[in-house]
Write a structure and sequence with these properties.
Chain A is mainly α. Chain A contains 10 helices and no strands. The longest helix of chain A is centred in the N-terminal third of the chain and has 37 residues. The chains are: A mainly alpha, B mainly alpha.
């Protein structure tokens, strides 16, 4: 079924290919990178990209191979983004469906907490949480997770509200289905499509937020490379060594394009409202 | 209408109260006290010294009392003093505010000037090649991180350095041309992503309106395509765009942090980073609170504006 859809929707397919490519690179980085991404080599500082030296993307200010660091960084950036999205989706969806399903005072309490989280610009909230928790990779995951909880909560709440008064829910409760059973067996599967779209959006936002935080020095800490902190390091050198900024930046653009294409395509497939518009 | 505004205003105050609680308690409850945030990890202090420090910084009371006092002082406009410079936090923030506001407003204007016409153009599908180019540009604009766009601008236009004064702020009213010149690239980098969002949104919105029955009616009574687009479609299609704009205006204030850092502009964003790097928690909580307040106010304003311009929407 899925295969058939993806064939029809070329945009989503290209996006999926890009993401699979990066996941493959991230897994590969565990076993092999062209050079050691962490080892400094002061004989080869800020070398331009060159086929002879086999530094295809040049070297950074410590003589480390940029291509290797991008490959190694893909593991870090992807795992941060995926774990953060997992946190945001789990908590957000649980909060949202409970709020939507129970209504009343629960709904009010849960959604007001979300309103508070929602009243910060996402980057600022991320910065603030990182400043309080301290800078390390696990806190980046927690911070990004918290930042994107409200979006999941709002979307799943709205989706539950839209279907919770339909007849099949009534039928399920008439034959004696418990509250949890109705919520998780009958309602949750029905809102999965819009959650999938939101997840793919959140993955790309997660990568952007991680790279912004790392760029400011509040995210993944050196010597470990993430695409964001590579750009942050390159800030002082990029006038004389533009490659040290351009390649990590292009990598971020490419993977976010992948997620956006996938998200757009998935929206067309799963949310047919806009289909005839195209 | 007034009822609705009043209701929203009350909920706004509650949300701001919640925001202040979140800011205050997060700084104090997670790993240790605010003082630990101030001291950092390098300094070892004995418990006795800690007690002394608490008394010096006025942190020796129960947290709830501290919060009450803090809130009360803020309501009187006293945000406390910076731990590093001893200057009042509020005056520091106010002196940095104009730049960030100007940057945000310019970025917002750029995104509309670029995004809206492109969106309208792309929705007309008159030229498939143009449409493709516009859509790919839109996708790239959506996917490029603001700081990377900023770095690219600096890289390609660094020869303008004599032309653009960098690292200083010239207020708009003092020298409008120079101010605009200086903020041109920063606001373009800040607003680029939003331009793409607006473009895509405008395009979809217009395509959706073109499906409506009243457009068919207009066509069948012989109204020209141009008039349909201007009088019938745009009027309806641009309403949701306003919401998107208002909602994103607040996000631009957050994005300003990175842009100001790249272009070395002395605005609010760099003050946040300064507060974090210097472990200056009164400054940090003050500035985060003020940006959040702006964010919430902009959202409220958008909602009210939306009700005002779209007579179909009536909230109790």
């Amino acid at each position: 079924m899925k295969h058939f859809y993806f064939k029809k929707n070329r945009v989503a397919f290209i996006g999926l290919l890009i993401i699979i490519f990066f996941i493959f690179i991230a897994i590969m980085s565990i076993f092999w990178t062209p050079f050691d991404p962490l080892e400094m080599n002061f004989k080869e500082i800020l070398q331009a990209p060159c086929f002879k030296t086999r530094h295809f993307m040049g070297t950074d200010q410590f003589g480390r191979d940029i291509l290797s660091r991008i490959i190694y960084g893909s593991r870090i950036s992807l795992s941060v983004s995926f774990s953060a999205t997992f946190i945001a989706a789990t908590f957000g969806v649980l909060m949202g469906i409970w709020a939507g399903f129970l209504g009343g005072i629960y709904d009010n309490c849960i959604m007001r907490i979300n309103d508070i989280l929602f009243s910060f610009p996402s980057l600022l909230l991320g910065i603030f949480i990182m400043a309080v928790l301290g800078e390390n990779i696990y806190n980046v995951i927690i911070a990004i997770g918290i930042v994107y909880i409200p979006q999941f909560a709002r979307i799943s709440r709205a989706a539950i509200l839209a279907i919770k008064n339909l007849e099949f829910v009534e039928a399920a409760s008439a034959i004696g289905g418990t509250r949890n059973r109705i919520l998780f067996k009958h309602l949750l599967p029905n809102i999965i499509p819009c959650l999938i779209v939101q997840t793919s959006l959140c993955l790309s936002l997660g990568i952007l937020l991680e790279s912004s935080l790392s760029f400011l020095g509040l995210g993944v800490q050196p010597p470990f490379p993430s695409w964001g902190n590579m750009l942050g390091d390159a800030r002082r050198f990029f006038i004389i060594a533009p490659w040290s900024a351009i390649f990590p930046g292009l990598t971020i653009v490419l993977i976010v394009v992948g997620f956006n294409l996938l998200g757009d395509g998935l929206r067309d497939i799963l949310d047919p409202r806009l289909k005839n518009v195209r | 209408m007034y009822n609705y505004i009043l209701k929203r205003f009350i909920s706004l105050i509650l949300v701001l109260l919640g925001v202040s609680i979140l800011i205050f308690f997060m700084i104090r409850l997670v790993p240790g006290s605010a003082l630990e945030l101030y001291l950092g990890t390098q300094v070892e202090v004995t418990p006795e010294q800690m007690e002394e420090l608490k008394i010096i910084f006025g942190e020796d009371k129960p947290v709830l009392v501290l919060y009450g006092e803090w809130l009360f002082r803020i309501l009187r406009g006293d945000f406390g003093c910076s731990l590093r410079t001893s200057r009042p936090v509020l005056s520091d923030i106010i002196s940095r505010l104009p730049l960030t506001l100007e940057l945000t407003i310019f970025a917002l204007s750029f995104s509309v000037i670029i995004g809206l016409p492109l969106g309208i153009l792309s929705s007309r599908k008159q030229n498939p090649f143009m449409d493709l180019v516009i859509r790919i540009t839109g996708l790239l604009g959506l996917s490029i991180p603001q700081f990377f766009l900023a770095i690219l601008f600096v890289l390609f236009f660094s020869s303008f350095e004599g032309w653009i004064p960098m690292g200083v702020y010239i207020p708009l009213f003092k020298n409008p041309m120079l101010s605009l010149k200086m903020l041109f690239f920063p606001s373009l980098a800040l607003g680029g992503g939003l331009a793409a969002v607006i473009m895509r949104f405008t395009r979809n919105s217009i395509l959706e309106v073109f499906q409506m029955d009243y457009i068919r009616t207009a066509r069948s009574k012989g109204v020209s395509e141009k008039i349909i687009l201007i009088k019938h479609v745009l009027k309806n299609a641009l309403l949701p765009v306003i919401t998107v704009l208002g909602f994103n205006a607040g996000y631009l204030m957050g994005g300003a942090v990175v842009i100001e850092e790249v272009f070395a502009l002395p605005g609010m964003g760099r003050l946040v980073l300064y507060a974090i790097y210097q472990r200056d928690y009164p400054l940090l909580q003050g500035i985060v609170l003020i940006i959040a307040a702006f964010f919430v106010l902009i959202n409220l304003f958008t909602d009210i504006l939306y009700v005002y311009i779209d007579p179909r929407i009536r909230y109790g």
